[in-house]
Design brief:
CATH class of the largest domain: Alpha Beta
Structural class: alpha/beta
Order of helices and strands: EHEHEHHEHEHEEHEEEHHHHHHHHHHHH
Amino acid sequence: MGNKIEILGLGAGDLEQLPLGVYRKLTQSAHVYLRTKQHPVVTELDQEGFNFTSFDSIYEKHDQFEQVYEEIVQTLLEKSQTGDVLYAVPGHPLVAERTVQLLLEYSAASRVEIIIGGGQSFIDSLFQALKIDPIEGFQLLDGTALSSSEIEIKQHIIIGQVYDQYVASNVKLTLMERLPDDYEVIIVTAAGSSSESIIKVPLYELDREVILSNLTSVYVPPVKEEKLLVREFSKLKEIIAVLRGPNGCPWDKEQTHESLKRYLIEETYEVIEAINSGDIDNLIEELGDVLLQVMLHAQIGEDDGYFSIDDVIGVLTEKMIRRHPHVFGDRKAEDADTVVRNWQEIKEQEKGVKETSRLAGVPKSLPNLIRAYEIQKKAAKVGFDWQEIKPAIEKVKEELQEFEDELTENLEGMQLAKEEFGDLLFAFVNVARFLKIHPEEALLATNEKFIRRFQYIEARVRESGKSFEQHTLEELDLFWDEAKIKGL
Protein backbone atom coordinates (compact mmCIF):
# COMPACT_ATOMS: atom_id res chain seq x y z
CA MET A 1 0.00 0.00 0.00
CA GLY A 2 1.24 3.47 -0.80
CA ASN A 3 0.42 6.75 0.96
CA LYS A 4 -2.69 7.38 2.99
CA ILE A 5 -5.69 9.70 3.16
CA GLU A 6 -6.98 10.30 6.67
CA ILE A 7 -10.53 11.59 6.88
CA LEU A 8 -11.78 13.58 9.87
CA GLY A 9 -15.25 14.78 10.72
CA LEU A 10 -15.87 18.41 11.64
CA GLY A 11 -18.98 17.48 13.60
CA ALA A 12 -22.41 18.94 13.40
CA GLY A 13 -21.91 22.15 15.34
CA ASP A 14 -19.27 24.59 16.50
CA LEU A 15 -15.75 24.23 17.93
CA GLU A 16 -17.03 23.40 21.43
CA GLN A 17 -18.44 20.12 20.15
CA LEU A 18 -15.28 19.05 18.30
CA PRO A 19 -13.45 16.09 19.95
CA LEU A 20 -10.03 17.06 21.34
CA GLY A 21 -8.21 14.52 19.20
CA VAL A 22 -9.77 15.83 16.00
CA TYR A 23 -9.00 19.42 17.04
CA ARG A 24 -5.32 18.61 17.60
CA LYS A 25 -4.95 16.86 14.24
CA LEU A 26 -6.58 19.75 12.42
CA THR A 27 -4.52 22.46 14.11
CA GLN A 28 -1.21 20.60 14.08
CA SER A 29 -1.38 19.56 10.45
CA ALA A 30 0.59 21.57 7.92
CA HIS A 31 -2.31 21.52 5.52
CA VAL A 32 -5.91 20.23 5.45
CA TYR A 33 -8.26 19.71 2.51
CA LEU A 34 -11.91 20.56 3.16
CA ARG A 35 -14.92 19.45 1.16
CA THR A 36 -16.39 22.82 2.10
CA LYS A 37 -15.35 25.70 4.31
CA GLN A 38 -19.00 26.55 4.98
CA HIS A 39 -18.93 25.21 8.55
CA PRO A 40 -18.85 26.90 12.01
CA VAL A 41 -15.73 24.96 13.04
CA VAL A 42 -13.79 26.25 10.04
CA THR A 43 -14.84 29.82 10.78
CA GLU A 44 -13.45 29.55 14.32
CA LEU A 45 -10.29 27.64 13.33
CA ASP A 46 -9.58 30.23 10.65
CA GLN A 47 -9.03 32.75 13.44
CA GLU A 48 -6.30 30.47 14.85
CA GLY A 49 -4.33 30.45 11.59
CA PHE A 50 -5.81 27.22 10.26
CA ASN A 51 -4.14 26.29 6.94
CA PHE A 52 -6.57 24.68 4.51
CA THR A 53 -7.73 24.31 0.91
CA SER A 54 -11.47 23.96 0.29
CA PHE A 55 -13.19 22.42 -2.71
CA ASP A 56 -16.07 24.92 -2.74
CA SER A 57 -15.06 26.20 -6.17
CA ILE A 58 -15.71 22.77 -7.69
CA TYR A 59 -19.40 23.08 -6.83
CA GLU A 60 -19.63 26.02 -9.22
CA LYS A 61 -18.17 24.01 -12.12
CA HIS A 62 -20.76 21.22 -12.33
CA ASP A 63 -24.53 20.83 -12.60
CA GLN A 64 -24.66 17.45 -10.85
CA PHE A 65 -23.45 16.70 -7.31
CA GLU A 66 -22.03 13.36 -8.43
CA GLN A 67 -19.69 15.20 -10.80
CA VAL A 68 -18.58 17.46 -7.94
CA TYR A 69 -17.84 14.50 -5.67
CA GLU A 70 -16.00 12.67 -8.44
CA GLU A 71 -13.65 15.60 -9.07
CA ILE A 72 -12.98 16.07 -5.35
CA VAL A 73 -12.07 12.41 -4.96
CA GLN A 74 -9.81 12.34 -8.03
CA THR A 75 -8.01 15.44 -6.75
CA LEU A 76 -7.45 13.85 -3.34
CA LEU A 77 -6.16 10.61 -4.91
CA GLU A 78 -3.71 12.59 -7.06
CA LYS A 79 -2.48 14.55 -4.04
CA SER A 80 -1.97 11.32 -2.11
CA GLN A 81 0.53 10.10 -4.70
CA THR A 82 3.04 12.68 -3.44
CA GLY A 83 2.37 12.41 0.29
CA ASP A 84 -0.17 11.75 3.04
CA VAL A 85 -3.37 13.77 2.87
CA LEU A 86 -5.66 15.00 5.67
CA TYR A 87 -9.24 15.51 4.48
CA ALA A 88 -12.05 16.96 6.62
CA VAL A 89 -15.80 16.79 5.99
CA PRO A 90 -18.86 18.08 7.85
CA GLY A 91 -20.39 15.73 10.43
CA HIS A 92 -19.00 12.20 10.63
CA PRO A 93 -17.05 10.79 7.64
CA LEU A 94 -19.32 7.74 7.34
CA VAL A 95 -22.68 9.49 7.62
CA ALA A 96 -24.16 10.97 4.44
CA GLU A 97 -20.76 11.67 2.92
CA ARG A 98 -20.54 10.52 -0.70
CA THR A 99 -16.91 11.56 -1.23
CA VAL A 100 -15.81 9.19 1.53
CA GLN A 101 -17.69 6.29 -0.03
CA LEU A 102 -16.05 7.01 -3.38
CA LEU A 103 -12.60 7.16 -1.76
CA LEU A 104 -13.18 3.78 -0.12
CA GLU A 105 -14.35 2.39 -3.46
CA TYR A 106 -11.32 3.64 -5.41
CA SER A 107 -8.65 3.14 -2.75
CA ALA A 108 -7.63 -0.43 -3.67
CA ALA A 109 -7.04 0.35 -7.34
CA SER A 110 -5.16 3.54 -6.41
CA ARG A 111 -3.07 1.77 -3.75
CA VAL A 112 -4.04 4.41 -1.20
CA GLU A 113 -4.82 3.60 2.43
CA ILE A 114 -8.00 5.26 3.73
CA ILE A 115 -8.16 5.98 7.46
CA ILE A 116 -11.44 7.10 9.01
CA GLY A 117 -10.91 9.49 11.91
CA GLY A 118 -13.40 10.77 14.46
CA GLY A 119 -16.17 13.30 14.26
CA GLN A 120 -19.65 13.76 15.63
CA SER A 121 -22.55 12.88 13.35
CA PHE A 122 -25.28 15.45 12.92
CA ILE A 123 -27.77 12.66 13.67
CA ASP A 124 -27.20 12.70 17.45
CA SER A 125 -27.60 16.46 17.67
CA LEU A 126 -30.66 16.32 15.44
CA PHE A 127 -32.39 13.70 17.59
CA GLN A 128 -31.66 15.85 20.63
CA ALA A 129 -32.89 19.04 18.98
CA LEU A 130 -36.13 17.41 17.81
CA LYS A 131 -36.56 15.27 20.96
CA ILE A 132 -37.34 12.10 19.02
CA ASP A 133 -36.41 8.49 19.76
CA PRO A 134 -34.93 6.65 16.75
CA ILE A 135 -36.04 3.29 18.10
CA GLU A 136 -39.54 4.16 16.83
CA GLY A 137 -38.11 3.75 13.33
CA PHE A 138 -36.52 6.41 11.18
CA GLN A 139 -35.09 6.97 7.71
CA LEU A 140 -32.03 9.00 6.79
CA LEU A 141 -32.33 10.06 3.15
CA ASP A 142 -30.22 12.09 0.75
CA GLY A 143 -31.92 15.33 -0.33
CA THR A 144 -29.89 15.46 -3.53
CA ALA A 145 -31.19 12.08 -4.72
CA LEU A 146 -34.60 11.72 -3.09
CA SER A 147 -37.10 9.27 -4.57
CA SER A 148 -40.78 9.08 -3.65
CA SER A 149 -40.72 5.27 -3.71
CA GLU A 150 -38.18 5.03 -0.88
CA ILE A 151 -40.12 7.20 1.57
CA GLU A 152 -41.82 5.45 4.51
CA ILE A 153 -44.27 8.05 5.75
CA LYS A 154 -45.11 6.13 8.92
CA GLN A 155 -41.54 6.58 10.19
CA HIS A 156 -39.47 9.56 11.32
CA ILE A 157 -37.78 10.88 8.17
CA ILE A 158 -34.58 12.92 8.18
CA ILE A 159 -33.51 14.34 4.84
CA GLY A 160 -29.92 15.54 4.84
CA GLN A 161 -27.81 17.56 2.41
CA VAL A 162 -30.54 20.12 1.73
CA TYR A 163 -27.91 22.65 0.70
CA ASP A 164 -29.93 25.26 -1.13
CA GLN A 165 -33.31 26.26 -2.51
CA TYR A 166 -32.88 24.10 -5.61
CA VAL A 167 -32.44 20.95 -3.52
CA ALA A 168 -35.18 22.10 -1.14
CA SER A 169 -37.55 22.57 -4.07
CA ASN A 170 -36.90 19.05 -5.34
CA VAL A 171 -37.37 17.66 -1.84
CA LYS A 172 -40.65 19.55 -1.52
CA LEU A 173 -42.03 18.29 -4.83
CA THR A 174 -41.02 14.71 -4.03
CA LEU A 175 -42.66 14.82 -0.60
CA MET A 176 -45.80 16.32 -2.13
CA GLU A 177 -46.24 13.11 -4.11
CA ARG A 178 -46.94 11.37 -0.79
CA LEU A 179 -48.07 14.10 1.59
CA PRO A 180 -50.54 17.02 1.62
CA ASP A 181 -49.16 20.40 0.56
CA ASP A 182 -49.73 21.83 4.05
CA TYR A 183 -48.17 18.93 5.98
CA GLU A 184 -45.90 20.42 8.65
CA VAL A 185 -42.18 19.74 8.29
CA ILE A 186 -39.24 21.04 10.32
CA ILE A 187 -36.10 22.68 8.93
CA VAL A 188 -33.12 22.14 11.25
CA THR A 189 -29.82 23.97 10.72
CA ALA A 190 -26.60 23.55 12.74
CA ALA A 191 -28.27 21.25 15.26
CA GLY A 192 -26.57 21.30 18.67
CA SER A 193 -24.50 24.42 18.00
CA SER A 194 -24.90 27.92 19.38
CA SER A 195 -26.46 28.93 16.05
CA GLU A 196 -28.98 26.09 16.00
CA SER A 197 -32.15 26.94 14.08
CA ILE A 198 -35.43 25.00 14.15
CA ILE A 199 -38.22 26.29 11.89
CA LYS A 200 -41.63 24.67 11.36
CA VAL A 201 -43.20 25.29 7.96
CA PRO A 202 -45.98 23.82 5.85
CA LEU A 203 -44.50 21.62 3.13
CA TYR A 204 -45.35 24.03 0.32
CA GLU A 205 -43.11 26.70 1.96
CA LEU A 206 -40.07 24.43 2.33
CA ASP A 207 -38.07 26.29 -0.33
CA ARG A 208 -39.37 29.80 0.43
CA GLU A 209 -37.67 32.51 2.47
CA VAL A 210 -35.54 30.09 4.46
CA ILE A 211 -31.75 30.29 4.71
CA LEU A 212 -30.33 26.88 3.79
CA SER A 213 -26.76 25.60 4.12
CA ASN A 214 -24.74 22.40 4.13
CA LEU A 215 -25.74 22.04 7.81
CA THR A 216 -29.46 22.00 6.97
CA SER A 217 -31.68 18.94 7.30
CA VAL A 218 -35.41 18.52 6.89
CA TYR A 219 -37.38 16.48 9.39
CA VAL A 220 -40.71 14.94 8.36
CA PRO A 221 -42.76 13.72 11.34
CA PRO A 222 -44.37 10.28 10.95
CA VAL A 223 -47.92 10.26 9.59
CA LYS A 224 -50.47 9.26 12.21
CA GLU A 225 -53.76 10.22 10.56
CA GLU A 226 -55.54 7.26 8.97
CA LYS A 227 -56.90 9.38 6.12
CA LEU A 228 -53.33 10.16 5.00
CA LEU A 229 -52.37 6.48 4.96
CA VAL A 230 -55.06 5.30 2.54
CA ARG A 231 -52.71 5.61 -0.46
CA GLU A 232 -50.05 3.41 1.14
CA PHE A 233 -49.71 -0.11 -0.22
CA SER A 234 -48.93 -1.38 3.27
CA LYS A 235 -52.28 -0.02 4.47
CA LEU A 236 -54.15 -1.83 1.70
CA LYS A 237 -52.35 -5.06 2.54
CA GLU A 238 -53.27 -4.60 6.21
CA ILE A 239 -56.96 -4.02 5.36
CA ILE A 240 -57.18 -7.15 3.20
CA ALA A 241 -55.58 -9.20 6.00
CA VAL A 242 -58.14 -7.83 8.48
CA LEU A 243 -61.04 -8.63 6.12
CA ARG A 244 -59.81 -12.22 5.86
CA GLY A 245 -58.94 -12.40 9.56
CA PRO A 246 -60.88 -13.92 12.49
CA ASN A 247 -62.92 -10.74 13.05
CA GLY A 248 -63.20 -9.85 9.38
CA CYS A 249 -65.96 -9.98 6.79
CA PRO A 250 -67.91 -13.26 6.45
CA TRP A 251 -67.98 -12.94 2.65
CA ASP A 252 -64.25 -12.26 2.31
CA LYS A 253 -63.36 -15.10 4.68
CA GLU A 254 -65.21 -17.74 2.67
CA GLN A 255 -63.71 -16.83 -0.72
CA THR A 256 -61.36 -19.21 -2.55
CA HIS A 257 -59.29 -18.96 -5.72
CA GLU A 258 -62.13 -20.80 -7.51
CA SER A 259 -64.94 -18.62 -6.18
CA LEU A 260 -63.14 -15.41 -7.15
CA LYS A 261 -62.52 -16.36 -10.81
CA ARG A 262 -65.70 -14.81 -12.19
CA TYR A 263 -65.12 -11.54 -10.31
CA LEU A 264 -61.70 -11.13 -11.88
CA ILE A 265 -63.23 -11.52 -15.34
CA GLU A 266 -66.06 -9.11 -14.55
CA GLU A 267 -63.76 -6.46 -13.10
CA THR A 268 -61.41 -6.72 -16.08
CA TYR A 269 -64.25 -6.00 -18.48
CA GLU A 270 -65.33 -3.04 -16.36
CA VAL A 271 -61.79 -1.64 -16.69
CA ILE A 272 -62.09 -1.93 -20.47
CA GLU A 273 -65.43 -0.14 -20.36
CA ALA A 274 -63.92 2.67 -18.28
CA ILE A 275 -61.07 3.03 -20.78
CA ASN A 276 -63.51 3.20 -23.68
CA SER A 277 -65.62 5.81 -21.92
CA GLY A 278 -62.61 8.04 -21.28
CA ASP A 279 -63.74 8.49 -17.66
CA ILE A 280 -60.48 8.73 -15.67
CA ASP A 281 -62.15 8.71 -12.25
CA ASN A 282 -64.06 5.57 -13.19
CA LEU A 283 -60.88 4.01 -14.56
CA ILE A 284 -59.11 4.63 -11.23
CA GLU A 285 -61.96 2.96 -9.38
CA GLU A 286 -62.14 -0.03 -11.73
CA LEU A 287 -58.38 -0.59 -11.66
CA GLY A 288 -58.69 -0.61 -7.87
CA ASP A 289 -61.31 -3.35 -8.15
CA VAL A 290 -58.91 -5.45 -10.26
CA LEU A 291 -56.15 -4.83 -7.72
CA LEU A 292 -58.56 -5.97 -5.00
CA GLN A 293 -58.89 -9.31 -6.77
CA VAL A 294 -55.10 -9.68 -6.89
CA MET A 295 -54.81 -8.79 -3.21
CA LEU A 296 -57.54 -11.27 -2.22
CA HIS A 297 -55.87 -14.09 -4.15
CA ALA A 298 -52.53 -13.20 -2.54
CA GLN A 299 -54.06 -13.11 0.95
CA ILE A 300 -55.69 -16.50 0.38
CA GLY A 301 -52.27 -17.80 -0.67
CA GLU A 302 -50.74 -16.36 2.50
CA ASP A 303 -53.52 -17.74 4.72
CA ASP A 304 -52.98 -21.19 3.20
CA GLY A 305 -49.21 -20.89 3.67
CA TYR A 306 -48.30 -21.11 -0.01
CA PHE A 307 -47.39 -17.57 -1.11
CA SER A 308 -47.90 -13.88 -0.34
CA ILE A 309 -48.22 -10.64 -2.28
CA ASP A 310 -44.46 -10.20 -1.80
CA ASP A 311 -43.89 -13.42 -3.76
CA VAL A 312 -46.19 -12.17 -6.52
CA ILE A 313 -44.33 -8.85 -6.72
CA GLY A 314 -40.94 -10.58 -6.57
CA VAL A 315 -41.73 -12.99 -9.42
CA LEU A 316 -43.15 -10.16 -11.54
CA THR A 317 -40.18 -7.85 -10.91
CA GLU A 318 -37.66 -10.54 -11.82
CA LYS A 319 -39.62 -11.41 -14.96
CA MET A 320 -39.78 -7.79 -16.10
CA ILE A 321 -36.01 -7.44 -15.72
CA ARG A 322 -35.27 -10.74 -17.47
CA ARG A 323 -37.61 -10.07 -20.37
CA HIS A 324 -36.45 -6.51 -20.97
CA PRO A 325 -32.73 -6.99 -21.65
CA HIS A 326 -32.93 -4.02 -24.05
CA VAL A 327 -33.67 -1.84 -20.99
CA PHE A 328 -31.88 -3.60 -18.12
CA GLY A 329 -29.20 -5.41 -20.15
CA ASP A 330 -27.13 -5.04 -23.29
CA ARG A 331 -29.52 -6.29 -25.97
CA LYS A 332 -30.96 -3.92 -28.58
CA ALA A 333 -34.59 -3.50 -29.58
CA GLU A 334 -35.41 -0.67 -31.96
CA ASP A 335 -39.14 -1.37 -32.28
CA ALA A 336 -42.05 -3.11 -30.58
CA ASP A 337 -41.92 -6.14 -32.90
CA THR A 338 -38.34 -6.87 -31.83
CA VAL A 339 -39.38 -6.57 -28.19
CA VAL A 340 -42.15 -9.15 -28.75
CA ARG A 341 -39.74 -11.57 -30.48
CA ASN A 342 -37.19 -11.18 -27.68
CA TRP A 343 -39.93 -11.72 -25.10
CA GLN A 344 -41.05 -14.97 -26.74
CA GLU A 345 -37.49 -16.23 -27.11
CA ILE A 346 -36.67 -15.53 -23.46
CA LYS A 347 -39.97 -17.10 -22.39
CA GLU A 348 -39.09 -20.34 -24.20
CA GLN A 349 -35.63 -20.35 -22.64
CA GLU A 350 -37.14 -19.93 -19.17
CA LYS A 351 -39.45 -22.90 -19.64
CA GLY A 352 -36.47 -25.10 -20.54
CA VAL A 353 -38.31 -27.05 -23.24
CA LYS A 354 -40.32 -25.85 -26.18
CA GLU A 355 -44.06 -26.38 -26.19
CA THR A 356 -45.36 -29.41 -28.09
CA SER A 357 -47.43 -27.13 -30.30
CA ARG A 358 -46.96 -23.54 -31.38
CA LEU A 359 -50.59 -22.98 -30.35
CA ALA A 360 -50.12 -24.29 -26.82
CA GLY A 361 -50.40 -21.70 -24.11
CA VAL A 362 -53.57 -19.99 -25.34
CA PRO A 363 -55.93 -20.43 -22.36
CA LYS A 364 -59.18 -22.29 -23.02
CA SER A 365 -60.82 -20.01 -20.45
CA LEU A 366 -60.55 -17.02 -22.80
CA PRO A 367 -63.72 -15.82 -24.55
CA ASN A 368 -63.57 -17.59 -27.90
CA LEU A 369 -63.46 -14.41 -29.94
CA ILE A 370 -60.27 -13.43 -28.11
CA ARG A 371 -59.00 -17.02 -28.23
CA ALA A 372 -59.33 -17.07 -32.02
CA TYR A 373 -57.36 -13.83 -32.15
CA GLU A 374 -54.56 -15.22 -29.96
CA ILE A 375 -54.41 -18.53 -31.87
CA GLN A 376 -54.01 -16.67 -35.14
CA LYS A 377 -51.28 -14.45 -33.65
CA LYS A 378 -49.27 -17.52 -32.63
CA ALA A 379 -49.64 -19.09 -36.08
CA ALA A 380 -48.61 -15.82 -37.73
CA LYS A 381 -45.33 -15.76 -35.77
CA VAL A 382 -44.05 -18.71 -37.84
CA GLY A 383 -45.23 -17.25 -41.15
CA PHE A 384 -48.62 -18.95 -41.40
CA ASP A 385 -50.39 -15.71 -42.33
CA TRP A 386 -51.60 -13.63 -45.23
CA GLN A 387 -49.03 -11.20 -46.58
CA GLU A 388 -51.66 -8.67 -47.63
CA ILE A 389 -55.27 -7.85 -46.78
CA LYS A 390 -56.98 -8.85 -50.05
CA PRO A 391 -56.69 -12.66 -49.68
CA ALA A 392 -57.94 -12.37 -46.09
CA ILE A 393 -61.06 -10.51 -47.26
CA GLU A 394 -61.57 -13.04 -50.07
CA LYS A 395 -61.49 -15.76 -47.42
CA VAL A 396 -64.31 -14.00 -45.57
CA LYS A 397 -66.36 -13.87 -48.79
CA GLU A 398 -65.67 -17.58 -49.37
CA GLU A 399 -66.80 -18.52 -45.87
CA LEU A 400 -69.90 -16.33 -46.19
CA GLN A 401 -70.84 -18.08 -49.43
CA GLU A 402 -70.35 -21.51 -47.84
CA PHE A 403 -72.54 -20.45 -44.93
CA GLU A 404 -75.29 -19.21 -47.30
CA ASP A 405 -75.04 -22.41 -49.36
CA GLU A 406 -75.44 -24.55 -46.28
CA LEU A 407 -78.53 -22.62 -45.23
CA THR A 408 -80.04 -23.04 -48.70
CA GLU A 409 -79.28 -26.73 -49.06
CA ASN A 410 -80.05 -27.96 -45.56
CA LEU A 411 -82.54 -25.86 -43.63
CA GLU A 412 -83.36 -28.62 -41.14
CA GLY A 413 -79.91 -29.80 -40.12
CA MET A 414 -78.07 -26.81 -38.58
CA GLN A 415 -74.87 -28.54 -37.47
CA LEU A 416 -72.97 -27.83 -40.69
CA ALA A 417 -74.36 -24.30 -40.79
CA LYS A 418 -73.06 -23.82 -37.25
CA GLU A 419 -69.60 -24.94 -38.39
CA GLU A 420 -69.68 -22.63 -41.39
CA PHE A 421 -70.78 -19.76 -39.17
CA GLY A 422 -67.78 -20.44 -36.92
CA ASP A 423 -65.51 -20.46 -39.97
CA LEU A 424 -66.97 -17.12 -41.02
CA LEU A 425 -66.29 -15.56 -37.61
CA PHE A 426 -62.77 -17.01 -37.58
CA ALA A 427 -62.08 -15.50 -41.01
CA PHE A 428 -63.40 -12.12 -39.88
CA VAL A 429 -61.13 -12.24 -36.82
CA ASN A 430 -58.23 -12.83 -39.21
CA VAL A 431 -59.08 -9.65 -41.11
CA ALA A 432 -59.33 -7.72 -37.83
CA ARG A 433 -55.96 -9.01 -36.67
CA PHE A 434 -54.35 -8.12 -40.02
CA LEU A 435 -55.65 -4.57 -39.63
CA LYS A 436 -54.53 -4.48 -35.96
CA ILE A 437 -58.14 -4.22 -34.80
CA HIS A 438 -58.83 -6.21 -31.66
CA PRO A 439 -62.13 -8.01 -32.38
CA GLU A 440 -63.27 -7.99 -28.77
CA GLU A 441 -62.76 -4.23 -28.48
CA ALA A 442 -64.47 -3.65 -31.83
CA LEU A 443 -67.49 -5.76 -30.83
CA LEU A 444 -67.66 -4.06 -27.44
CA ALA A 445 -67.77 -0.65 -29.14
CA THR A 446 -70.51 -1.87 -31.48
CA ASN A 447 -72.53 -3.24 -28.59
CA GLU A 448 -72.31 0.08 -26.79
CA LYS A 449 -73.26 1.94 -29.96
CA PHE A 450 -76.28 -0.32 -30.46
CA ILE A 451 -77.36 0.28 -26.85
CA ARG A 452 -77.13 4.07 -27.27
CA ARG A 453 -79.14 4.06 -30.48
CA PHE A 454 -81.75 1.61 -29.22
CA GLN A 455 -82.20 3.70 -26.07
CA TYR A 456 -82.82 6.68 -28.36
CA ILE A 457 -85.50 4.65 -30.18
CA GLU A 458 -87.08 3.80 -26.80
CA ALA A 459 -87.16 7.49 -25.90
CA ARG A 460 -88.81 8.41 -29.23
CA VAL A 461 -91.37 5.65 -28.80
CA ARG A 462 -92.27 6.99 -25.34
CA GLU A 463 -92.61 10.51 -26.78
CA SER A 464 -95.03 9.21 -29.40
CA GLY A 465 -97.43 7.92 -26.77
CA LYS A 466 -97.68 4.57 -28.59
CA SER A 467 -96.19 1.19 -27.77
CA PHE A 468 -93.42 -0.55 -29.70
CA GLU A 469 -95.96 -2.93 -31.19
CA GLN A 470 -97.88 0.00 -32.66
CA HIS A 471 -94.83 1.13 -34.65
CA THR A 472 -93.80 -0.42 -37.94
CA LEU A 473 -90.24 -1.54 -38.53
CA GLU A 474 -89.89 1.29 -41.05
CA GLU A 475 -90.84 3.84 -38.37
CA LEU A 476 -88.39 2.37 -35.89
CA ASP A 477 -85.69 2.46 -38.60
CA LEU A 478 -86.34 6.18 -39.03
CA PHE A 479 -85.69 6.69 -35.31
CA TRP A 480 -82.47 4.66 -35.72
CA ASP A 481 -81.38 6.94 -38.57
CA GLU A 482 -82.08 9.98 -36.37
CA ALA A 483 -79.80 8.51 -33.70
CA LYS A 484 -77.05 8.05 -36.28
CA ILE A 485 -77.42 11.66 -37.46
CA LYS A 486 -77.09 12.83 -33.84
CA GLY A 487 -73.80 10.91 -33.57
CA LEU A 488 -75.07 8.35 -31.07
